[in-house]
Amino acid sequence: MTTPQHGAARTPTSPPLFAQHAARELDTWRAWHGLAYQARLLPNILRAHRLKAATHGHVYAQPFTLTERLHAQWRHAFQAPTGHGGVLQTCHVHLSRDYLFTTLARLGLNFANVMHLGVRLGWEADFHGYKARQPYVFHARLKACVRMGERRVALDFETEITTLSGRSLMRQDDTMLVDRLPPALLDQLAPVQHGPDATWYEALRGLRHAQPHLQPDHASARQAIVIPKDQGRRYGQLSGDLNPLHTQHWLARRLGHPAAFVQGLYTANLMLAHLRRHQPANRHLAIRFCRPVFTGQTVELLSDAARCELHDARRQLLVSASMAAAEAV
Questions:
Q1: Other CB atoms within 10 Å distance of the CB of residue 55
Q2: Which CATH number is 44-324 given?
């Protein structure tokens, strides 16, 4: 899944003298790269979606269990502190990916146009992370559809993790921007609306212009992190999100980016690991993805009592999170 400002390809320019030739080249370029992009999505799109319909509340509900190996991989990937019992977030089981693809397909939407804007997370007081070999139930539904512009909408996907008995452990709301929609699809999506949280959606506007609130000298905790060049692939294998813009450097460069960029939920997990070491009491987190986090770059995590931010070397704000000590999403 792409992060804000990365769904559209940058169109190559050519001198006017070669305008007709350039137009033909551009059409060929678009067709070839469009085909290559979609081909790399096929393993995800064609994966069997065996999500079960829920009996009430959510659209889907399906049990899952983390194996010892997968549990260890998640803990190792984000250096989970041993005192908090397991993976630090939803661990983004492949069911999340399957549900997203299934829903987008049913709505007639193109995954290539989807950008991750933000995520809201909430944990119950007695939930300290996932444990291996313990059964959980994944619940999901499309919560809301909100017009964000002339040809774009935001889709809110709600995920809830419960015990087999139905006791809620955590909730997650992912907001995805779908861009460049034809009018017919916009009209088709209108009935999905459910009275959105206006404050949250307002905070998601103008993300590319967002500025840092935290300064290094005033942050209570700081952590420098080097993003490995193959991090998009490694996280994709762990989470199931193998969007080629996260894994194929040549394709990311062809589409105007300096390198592949990591999944938004990878950076969310980085923040959670950082916060669990410094502020383990937080039970609610709202994250906005402002700019891409490219593989191979060095970033810095900064936090205080109310906020956590990810900055690049030029002190640009990449990801912003606000925190609260109580109350779930």
A1: 7
A2: 3.10.129.10
